[in-house]
Write a structure and sequence with these properties.
By secondary structure, the chain is α/β, with parallel strands linked by helices. The protein contains twelve helices and eight strands. Strands 1, 2, 3, 4, 5, 6, 7 and 8 form an eight-stranded mixed sheet that branches. It binds S-adenosylmethionine. S-adenosylmethionine binds next to helix 1 and helix 5.
């Protein structure tokens, strides 16, 4: 990861750490309980949560495994994760500073590696996937949730060129709201990355995530002029992007739907 993009992530999330501790999408989003249900964690597992943010995913798994390390690159986020662990009395949840692309853990350490709503910030997804494979024990489980870009698997009835434009416009929209946004991959790209890293995919599904547009902007402390530009981008989205984001505007209250990919894989033995 470049120093510049690392600094951007730390600035954005450092300033907004408390918002993520209380964000309902992160604390209670449907993908969290679904992830636990799909993974079926075992009581003797040692787990690692990469890019833990305020620690919601690590905290959901902690009561079900032997230990979980909540890791992140932003110190303010790790402080929020520590608070959540203390508030919930999760003595087996510890925190560690870690760059997702260079995990400070030995080979074959973990039974489970989770990473939720974060890889779209990583500049080098292949490096991240290689690190996940390296730190997993053979047969260990990788459980991923991330926002995805439109492709034919989420957005049907459009030509490839229209979908490519929608993918670019969607990532530009996200990047304007959060300069530390890198790129949300498509489902097809994730499948390739995970397979190439030496894992076998055992489950894939999409989870729609209804978002209140104003709250989405507020989570990243977006200023008024930028909010106006984002509003215009949403209102003037191409048909393919509209089909993906499903924007609505009821009495001036805008909403949209983001798509999360839930992917479960195991490290090849
Ligand atoms: C939206 S938050 C994560 C939400 C959290 N996983 C959850 O389930 O609630 C994104 C996090 O990714 C972290 N992050 C971004 N790039 C990173 C990297 N290269 N290595 C580790 N953490 C990173 C940020 O610091 C931030 O805390």
């Amino acid at each position: 990861m470049t120093d510049q993009s690392k600094a951007l992530v730390q600035a954005q999330f450092g300033a907004n750490a408390a918002n993520y501790a209380t964000s309902s999408v992160h604390a209670k989003g449907a993908s969290l309980s679904r992830l636990v249900e799909l993974v079926q964690p075992k009581a003797n597992w040692s787990a690692l949560d990469v890019a833990t943010g305020a620690g919601h995913t690590a905290a959901a798994f902690a009561p079900l495994v032997a230990s979980v390390i909540a890791s992140d690159i932003t110190p303010e986020m790790l402080a929020e994760a520590k608070k959540i662990a203390a508030d919930k009395g999760l003595s087996n949840m510890t925190t560690a500073t870690a760059d997702a692309e260079k995990l400070p853990f030995a080979d074959a350490t973990f039974d489970l590696v989770t990473c939720r709503i974060a890889p779209h910030h990583f500049p080098n997804i292949e490096a991240f996937a290689a690190e996940v494979t390296r730190v997993l024990k053979p047969g260990g489980t990788f459980a991923l949730v991330d926002n995805i870009s439109p492709d034919a698997s989420t957005t049907t009835g459009f030509a490839d060129a229209a979908l490519e434009d929608a993918e670019k416009a969607y990532n530009a929209f996200e990047k304007l709201r959060d300069p530390s946004h890198g790129r949300a991959l498509t489902t097809g790209e994730w499948q390739d990355v995970v397979l190439d890293a030496g894992m076998t995919i055992t489950h894939i599904e999409h989870q729609p995530k209804a978002m209140d547009f104003a709250a989405w902007c507020k989570n990243m402390s977006v200023d008024a002029p930028t909010t106006e530009r984002l509003t215009a981008m949403l209102d003037n989205a191409s048909p393919a992007l509209q089909s993906f984001l499903q924007p609505t505007n009821l009495y001036g209250k805008r909403s949209m739907v983001l798509s999360e990919l839930i992917l479960i894989a195991t490290k090849d033995a």
